Structure formats: structure tokens, C-alpha cells
UniProtKB/TrEMBL annotation:
Residues 59-92 are annotated as: Disordered. Residues 77-89 have a biased composition (Basic residues). This is Density-regulated protein. The lineage of its organism: Eukaryota, Metazoa, Ecdysozoa, Arthropoda, Hexapoda. It comes from the Eukaryota.
Length: 181
């Protein structure tokens, strides 16, 4: 609830000297609140300090406030960055799992997407080459941990992968089925 009565607002604010005078800067000739956008702001500040010491104090206070603000922003940013670092470190804890799925390509063709091989420390380029020659089709690394084999070979992979890399057993291969278009 406001204590103020509306009629009081019509009167002059006793804290402000009327008429309000716009203070112009002797250096850049702009109203002093625009000085900070002037390239020679340092010179403006010097002029203010000499000619309008009270205004200069206000400018200084404002700057201090801004600095604190940025400092907090900086802290927040650092915190966010810190979280990211933690996540990156955790990569070693990523569960070892290979996923295979079928994705449509064109009207009738499908490709097979294999992800997770690098969680078993398998070189993706070597793996892509292996799939290519094994299935006699195109095969390439398409992402950080993704290989696309040009053909529907998903079901074969449950035999082929553990054969080639014994550290991956069939249970570590997750069948994601068909990817939607
Ligand atoms: Zn100025």
C-alpha cells in the first residue's frame, strides 16, 4: 500500500532544484550523461572533475557499480564453465554401449547408424573402413562417435561387431530399431 497521496506528486520534489538544468560537458559539449559514449571519455572525466566535482563523483560511483556487476557476471560464467569441465571429465564414466539403428535414406534405401564404438576405445576410422569392406558398401564416420553404413546391415552387426572386437559382447549392443524420417 502506498503512503503517498497522488496530489503530492504534482508538487515540486524538494530534493531536486528546479528548473532542472541539463549539464553540458565542456570537453565534448554533450550532456554529461552521454560523456561515457564519447571516445575521449577520459578527457571528459578530467573536465568533470575540475568543473563539476559533484557530477564527477556520481559518474565514478556509477562506474564502480558497473564493475561490481560485471564481476558477478564473470563469476557466474566461471561457475557455468566449471560445470562444463566436470561434465567433460566424466566422459570416462560414460557407459560402454554400442547402439545400432536403421535410418531411411531416399524412398527405399536404408542406412545403418552405429554409435558408441569409441566408448570401447575403437578407432572410428578403422571401424568404418572395416564395415565398408565387410559389407562391401560405403561406410564413413559421420559424427563424434557415429558411423553410417550405406545399407541395411543392422542385424548382421550383432554378430560382426563381437567377432571383430571381442571386448564388445552382444549385450553391449543396443538395437534402437528404426529411426524416424
Ligand atoms: Zn564529455
Amino acid at each position: 500500500m502506498s503512503v503517498e497521496h497522488p496530489e503530492y506528486r504534482l508538487g515540486a520534489d524538494p530534493k531536486i532544484n528546479y528548473p532542472i538544468k541539463v549539464q553540458y560537458c565542456g570537453n565534448c559539449t554533450l550532456p554529461i550523461e552521454y560523456c561515457e559514449y564519447y571516445p575521449e571519455y577520459e578527457k571528459c572525466k578530467q573536465w568533470l572533475e575540475r568543473n563539476l566535482p559533484t557530477e564527477f563523483e556520481k559518474v565514478k560511483l556509477g562506474e564502480d557499480g558497473n564493475e561490481t556487476g560485471t564481476g558477478e557476471d564473470e563469476k557466474k560464467r566461471q561457475k557455468r564453465g566449471g560445470k562444463g569441465m566436470l561434465k567433460a571429465k566424466k566422459k570416462e564414466d560414460v557407459p560402454k554401449l554400442v547402439t545400432v539403428s536403421r535410418a531411411p535414406r531416399g524412398k527405399k534405401k536404408s542406412v545403418t547408424v552405429v554409435t558408441g564404438l569409441s566408448t570401447f576405445d575403437i578407432d572410428l576410422k578403422v571401424a568404418a573402413k572395416f564395415f565398408g569392406s565387410k559389407f562391401a558398401c560405403g561406410s564413413s564416420v559421420t559424427g563424434e562417435d557415429e558411423i553410417v553404413i550405406q545399407g541395411d546391415v543392422k542385424d548382421d552387426l550383432f554378430d560382426v561387431i563381437p567377432d571383430k572386437w571381442p571386448q564388445i559382447d552382444e549385450d553391449s549392443i543396443d538395437d534402437l530399431g528404426d529411426q524416424k524420417r
